[in-house]
Amino acid sequence: MVGCVVLMAALAACSGAAGYKVPALPDAGGSGDDGGQAGLPVTGIDSNQLGVTGVQPNSGPFSGGNTVVVRGSAFTAKAVVRIGGHMVDPSKLSLSGKGRLSVVVPAGNVGPADVSVTQGGVTATLRKGYSYNALQLDPQQGSIAGGTFVDITVSSASFDDKVQITFGDKGKACGMLRLVTPKRVRCAVPAHALGVVDVQASWPNGGHAPVLAKGAFEYIDTSDADRGGLSGGPIAGTINVTVVDQAMGLVVPGALVMVGDNPKTKYKGLTDTRGSITFSGPDLKGPVTVHVSMKCFERSSIVAFDAQNVTVFISPLLDLACLKMSMLDGSGGSGGHGQLGALISGELIFPGSDEFGINAWDIVPKPRSGELRVAYVYTTRVSADTRNPSPSGGGTIAKVEEQTARRGSRGYKYRIFARPAGLAVYALCGIERSATGEFTPYVMGVARNVVTSPGDEATGVDIDMSITLDRELDVTLSHVPAPTAKGPTDFRVRAHVDLGGEGVIVREVSGTSLDTKTSFSNSSAFRFLGQPAFVGPLADASYELIAGYYTNQTDPPYTSLRRFGVRPSSEPVVIDDLLGIAQNVAPALGGDIPADRQLRFELTGATPDFILVELTGGDGNPAWMQVLPGTARSVPVPDLSSIPGQTDLVPGFITWTVQAIRLDNFKYDAFRYIYLSSRYWTHVSENDFTMHH
After folding, report:
1. In the predicted model, is pLDDT for residue 42 greater than 60?
2. How distant is the alpha carbon of residue 618 from its chain centre?
3. Contact 159, 86 (CB under 8 A)
4. Partners of 133 in the beta sheet?
5. Strand partners, 381
6. pLDDT tens-place string over residues 214-225
7. 383 versus 15: which is more confidently predicted?
8. What digits encode the pLDDT tens for the residues 554-572?
9. How far is it, in rounded angstroms, from Cα 379 to Cα 451?
10. Stated pTM of the model
């Protein structure tokens, strides 16, 4: 059941620190079969009476997060939108005239969902106006040429190595399909004409009925200015370059674009009003390098590529003079609504002789003097490195103590604050020492497929506390790269339970991780005790491992990787493919920038897919970002000051950072800027150096 949340001031204060709040909800008005309109008809877009006539697009993933337009009449800025009974966060709703509301869809249950708009005690409802798909695609767009790699997550079924994924009415198969976890596959989309298509998962062996996701993927022309990256095949005398402001998504007129590293080249010029410039000549053949420079922006380059169409993103600088210009032209922005949170409540149900009553906590050892039995309740995270808002706050019960627990109908009550999403709720129960707060878990429980709505409370989410923590996971690190003079110094392995589209279980209590192992040596296995059996609600789960060789836990130099889809095994999981770490060749640390303006480094071990280099100027501002192929071992830094309107790097001590990166099934000449997000990376190493200019 879902009910409205009554705001407690203490809860708002606590949750606000995490970027979420739970305000008092507006009056939802009537909710009868007439949509709360007292029989008033929906008369169309031009009507002065509240109405909902459609949603575009009218379907999306069960996880929500996609943007749709709700169409209707008489909308105002005070509109409250619900999809499938789940409230749209007001901070993610914007009014575009009285007939259009742009909203970010909340997570929901698979299937058709009513869409309602409430204003001033009146509610208009479009029955089955939206449909939640059982498949989630990331990304949800790709080139008409095909080849875009997508991650596909299923909500209810489980994938196996026989599953087939098809796109469009003609059922074109997704290529190079790989099972990542029982809930997630990765494959390359087939070529298709422009437009939105259905995606279907099917099991030829009859393991599950086909799952159809209507309108789940959009084929686009990747030469569009707002996509960013490389496309169009090998260069044959022509290069089309478009420059885009990465923060605003707008094209940038008047930006300098230069092909090659020589400022005297004939292939240079300023972008037009569309942010574009085209270069043509018989000697234009790949691979080539493109540099882009614009006042108040970080310079950007894509090095040694062979593709006809180039869209380069440049990032605005947080420089005081540039910020003043932004404020003067009114683009400085303003504060908006805080993001609404949600509540989840239910009972912790312990196993015992009374099947229908309340059992004692006997599954946990009896506490000794100075100890007590406690349980902590949490929700899954979007990713292992994305923190949730604190589950605690006024009126919540995130920590349940055996001696003081409130009893319910079958168990012990809890109530936590949570982010609005489709997620899982889990509880860890064990022994806590009163004097130190040290916690040792012995049992856990998981409630799957919980959907939380902004400003609402998901009730009756009971957790069966029957998963004993008596399993073990061993991980070994071998063939690690040699350390540099600065490090790395220590090894760290993290093991988290991956539930696919519902997120990741990161077992952390009072700031202490239960699933992180650190050592100054990799000579023995990293042993994770107290692991759950992957049965019952965890039957389709897998481990996400994050392992690496680090300096002071987080500082460069370091090398690390993520491995998904690891299932429990009696044999140790072997990790032997960490990337090497860049070491500078020229200039020497603190030395002058080389006369040929080429920064050189060496990188041993496996070849990365691409290399990301970032320079910070002598003024401390970002100065230059460059994308290079994985085989590159030098970074061009041309002096542009001989070109009218351009300057060289700000003098002083300059830092240059080298990241070596690997992704699944990456093609450099089809590079997209989305690949600069670490969520796509499987491996990364980083080191930084200084030089004088």
Report:
1. no
2. 33
3. no
4. 61
5. 504
6. 999 998 775 554
7. 383
8. 789 999 999 999 999 889 9
9. 11
10. 0.81
For residue 557, say if its preceding peptide bond is cis, omega within 30 degrees of 0. yes
What CATH class is the domain 31-132?
A: mainly beta
Q: Do domains 135-220 and 342-468 have the same CATH topology?
A: yes
Amino acid in the structure at residue 575: I
Residue-wise pLDDT tens digits, 576-603: 999 999 999 999 988 999 999 999 999 9
Residues 6 or more apart in contact with residue 549 via CB below 8 angstroms: 477, 480, 481, 483, 488, 490, 491, 522, 558, 559, 560, 578
Sorted by where each begins, the domain ranges of the chain are 31-132, 135-220, 232-333+579-693, 342-468, 471-575
* Of 647, 625, 639, 648, the residue nearest 264 (C-alpha): 639
| Tokens coding 301 | 């380059």
**DSSP structure class, residue 680:** G
Sequential DSSP letters for 126-176: EEEEEEEESEEEESSEEETT---EEEEEESSS---TT-EEEETTTTEEPEE
Q: What angle do CA 306, 310, 312 make, to 5 degrees?
A: 125
List strands edge to edge, sheet with 135-138: 135-138, 149-154, 184-188, 175-181
CA distance linking residue 40 with residue 359, whole number of Å: 53
CB 575 within 8 A of CB 476: yes
Which residue type occupies 568? P
CA distance 228 to 223: 8
Contact (Cβ atoms closer than 8 angstroms) between residue 218 and residue 141: yes
- Which fold is adopted by the domain 471-575? Immunoglobulin-like (2.60.40)
Query: Taking the alpha carbons of 381, 383, 384, 389 in that order, is the dihedral positive or negative?
Result: negative
Contact call for residues 474 and 575 (beta carbons, < 8 A)? no
| Distance (Å, whole) CA 365 – CA 582 | 50
Q: Which residue has the tokens 């279980």?
A: 505
CB 363, CB 468: distance < 8 Å? yes
d(CA 558, CA 492): 11
342-468 under CATH 2.60.40, yes or no: yes
C-alpha pair distances (Å), 449 with each of 197, 458, 613, 674: 26, 12, 41, 29
Considering only the top CATH level, what class is 135-220? mainly beta
Higher pLDDT, 202 or 355: 202
Residue 565 neighbours by CB under 8 Å, 6+ apart: 179, 180, 181, 182, 184, 498, 542
E strands along 226-308, which residues? 229-231, 236-245, 256-259, 268-270, 276-285, 288-293, 299-305
Poorest-pLDDT segment among 3-12, 199-208, 393-402, 435-444:
3-12
d(CA 268, CA 293): 11
232-333+579-693 folds as Immunoglobulin-like (2.60.40)
- Count CB atoms within 10 A of the CB of residue 128: 12
- Gap between the Cα atoms of 420 and 418, Å rounded: 6
How far is the C-alpha of 317 from the C-alpha of 298, rounded, in Å? 6
The rounded distance, in Å, linking the Cα atoms of 437 and 430 is 12
Token pair, residue 570, equals 């009696």
Phi, psi of 339 (to 5 degrees): -80, 130
Whether residue 462 contacts residue 450, with contact meaning beta carbons closer than 8 Å, is answered with no
Q: How far apart are CA 593 and CA 650, in angstroms?
A: 12
Q: Contact at 8 Å (CB) between 330 and 443?
A: no
